Description:
Layout: E1 18-22, H1 26-37, E2 41-45, E3 53-57, E4 62-66, H2 79-85, H3 88-93, H4 106-129, E5 135-138, H5 139-146, H6 148-154, E6 171-172, E7 178-182, H7 186-196, H8 200-211, H9 213-216, H10 223-229, H11 234-244, E8 247-250, H12 254-260, E9 268-272, E10 294-298, H13 303-313, E11 317-322, E12 335-336, E13 339-340, H14 341-347, E14 351-354, H15 360-370, E15 375-378, H16 384-387, H17 392-398, E16 403-408, H18 422-428, H19 431-434, H20 449-472, E17 475-481, H21 482-489, E18 505-507, E19 510-514, H22 528-537, E20 542-544, E21 562-564, E22 570-572, E23 577-578
Parallel strand pairs: 1-2, 4-5, 10-11, 10-15, 11-14, 15-16, 16-17
Antiparallel strand pairs: 1-3, 3-4, 5-23, 6-7, 7-8, 9-17, 12-13, 18-19, 19-20, 21-22
Amino acid sequence: xxxxxxxxxxxxxxxxxxxxxxxxxxxxxxxxxxxxxxxxxxxxxxxxxxxxxxxxxxxxxxxxxxxxxxxxxxxxxxxxxxxxxxxxxxxxxxxxxxxxxxxxxxxxxxxxxxxxxxxxxxxxxxxxxxxxxxxxxxxxxxxxxxxxxxxxxxxxxxxxxxxxxxxxxxxxxxxxxxxxxxxxxxxxxxxxxxxxxxxxxxxxxxxxxxxxxxxxxxxxxxxxxxxxxxxxxxxxxxxxxxxxxxxxxxxxxxxxxxxxxxxxxxxxxxxxxxxxxxxxxxxxxxxxxxxxxxxxxxxxxxxxxxxxxxxxxxxxxxxxxxxxxxxxxxxxxxxxxxxxxxxxxxxxxxxxxxxxxxxxxxxxxxxxxxxxxxxxxxxxxxxxxxxxxxxxxxxxxxxxxxxxxxxxxxxxxxxxxxxxxxxxxxxxxxxxxxxxxxxxxxxxxxxxxxxxxxxxxxxxxxxxxxxxxxxxxxxxxxxxxxxxxxxxxxxxxxxxxxxxxxxxxxxxxxxxxxxxxxxxxxxxxxxxxxxxxxxxxxxxxxxxxxxxxxxxxxxxxxxxxxxxxxxxxxxxxxxxxxx
Length: 579
């Protein structure tokens, strides 16, 4: 991840800062890359004691990335155990019907981004408030954050709104091409499958699990759809997709993604406006790093709302821009109280104002809000903000001090890009090969890996932009993307994982995840406790896989990391500790 920001852009926010990064984990590698991109002079050392990573800033504090953090019990000591104990292995495995470890160090990568964001936020607080502190986070907390929407839904009294079970994309054409499909409209879905020749009943039944796969990490589709696709060559399927407006994407090999371009920077900054009078933070700040920062968020689905949620956890005031009648996702089942559990996972604690962005008078109202805000954050489709007169340059004219943040799909970098959604991005960037072992067919995860990691990067980019603004006295435009999130996961990738990689072992009463893969130890007739002992006898750390999200709020191991909010909805607490 070599930084290649255009030198006409704003200076990186940590330019010239000397930083030491210790550790060999994914968190350490990601931290080193992000801090280097931020302009820091980074020295790397492998030692980090029992930590995942440690960052030391010359003359001003640092960051510790622990493995377990506040998660008790001593089970979380590495990537495998974080995925198993904190449930990414369970959620990822829903598509196949059994827990499955992610083939990449996803939790460590997320922890590295969170640690970098915490460090930038503390540097901003040092400039704004004169307070220097240290920050901690952990791989376990990052893991819990990545499954927060699934955890919230599991705690809802009415249960999931769509079936959970194995199945779903990718599909395979008659000539052997694996591919993903995407449709946001049931009419597009129906038209495509009708052209392909799928039975009408199967098409109708398949829409709901397909539509809800973002929410459930499962898509048990009728087999008739896969059989219909398998009768046609890929070129024929693409023709049908073009006629119906369905988005189709071949599963790109990992090697092709590496060969086609240099990895993107995780985010990019560019100056806005002609400068402004620095007024500093408002009086009475509460000590949080982003105290006094006002964020306007116009986001849908996961990426932008999660980015704004993290900014709120760092102390910002977040105001959602919602359509007349409110965000329809507030009513998306399942619910806690009268609000969608998934909506609460991403949006609790935010205020909201209803604005019809298609109405010129309401757009004027939005500009009035922008005039006193610090950040305008959105994940609209490319060109939409500009077409409405709400682009970065437009809003900079209203507020020269504004940070205009865009969490996008492709950052305008791919000519042949499909629709910029999570599973299409996984397919297009080669992750389908890297997430599953070589004895399984390549397939993107139905866990929203890139939406979540893209949201983490969106928060990181926004804090970087706020820090750059504080240093330069100029407004800033920043952008992160699903594509950059995918490239961040490629940072340590070395090709397809070997057969059986991170595949939990079935025991008599559950699942057991050994840290060094799946040694040739038959534990099917053993209890999980005895299986863990059997692995320990071979020198292997193993843990029981948490395969029921609903147990987490009452599990004492998670008492300091997860609680029930006033709606009795499970909520993941802030991943940062300040000291």
